[in-house]
Amino acid sequence: MRVVLDTNVLVSAFMHPDRVPGQVLDLVPTGAFTCLYDSRILAEYEEVLGRPHFGFKPENLQAFVTLLWAVGEEVEGPFPKLQLPDNSDEKFLEVAWAGLADILVTGNLKHFPAKQTGLIKVMSPKEFLDLKK
User: Fold this and answer.
1) pTM
2) Which strands form 121-123's sheet, in the order they lie side by side?
């Protein structure tokens, strides 16, 4: 299964590792799915998770990025030009399309309207975990 993780899933997972988003992140090293990313997504992960107000340890962020390089898959363009209500979310859907993802996991379902996501299934972390059970 090929999956793209929205940054908000990672923020929630880092904040509350014992809750649902943390359980999703715990699946990354198990091979339960392949996490797709590109340089834009990695840059956003690093920028957002590195914000001082979160107080996340830099070594935890680096460990996650290293894990992605090891078990994930970098997707390279060409990327389709897609339009979403929040254009900062477009990179996630573009990588999902270009990488032939099965699912995009996000805590902001309303940012990914069905008429614009096409064949890409968009799920909350809970829906995704329920699918994996």
Assistant:
1) 0.95
2) 73-74, 34-37, 2-5, 103-105, 121-123
